[in-house]
Amino acid sequence: MRVLGASVLVMESLTLGFAILLATKDHSSSALIYGGVIAILLFLAAGLLKRRSGFYIASVLQIFMIAFGFAVPSFFIMGGIFIALWAAAIIVGRKGEAARAALMASQVENS
To answer: Which residues cross the membrane (predicted)?
Structure first.
């Protein structure tokens, strides 16, 4: 779950960083600073996924990612896509961890 979540957060951060580069001519500096702060926080949140609180922080940042759509309207769509990827990473990650735990338990019983 941690690896999938971290990959989504890093890709989100990179996408937002490239969007900031594209928005430099059309938008105010405050919108660009807001986007930069979100991009950095998303990148740092990927490292916080070792703890349970990291998932909560990253989930809150997803909301801020969609809110960036008020500065760059295409990010309403991109934010929605990344929220779906974030939810999929959590769901698939939990299933993967459960399968791994079952495999480890069966190997211990066979030993």
So the answer is: 6-24, 31-49, 55-88
Binning pLDDT at 50, 70 and 90, where does residue 111 land? low
* pLDDT tens per residue, range 64-104: 999 988 888 888 999 999 999 999 999 998 888 888 888 88
Q: What is the DSSP annotation of 47-82?
A: HGGGSHHHHHHHHHHHHHHHHGGGTSTTHHHHHHHH
Amino acid type, 37: V
Task: Give the burial string for 14-43 (b: 16+ CB within 10 Å, else e).
Answer: ebbbebbeebeeeeeeebbebbeebbebbb
Q: Are residues 88 and 62 in contact, defined by beta-carbon separation less than 8 angstroms?
A: no
- Whether 11 shows a pLDDT value over 70: the answer reads yes
- Among 53, 42, 54, residue whose Cα is nearest residue 10: 42
3-state class (DSSP) for residue 28: coil
Measure the CA–CA gap between 10 and 25, rounded to whole angstroms: 25
Domain count across the chain: 1
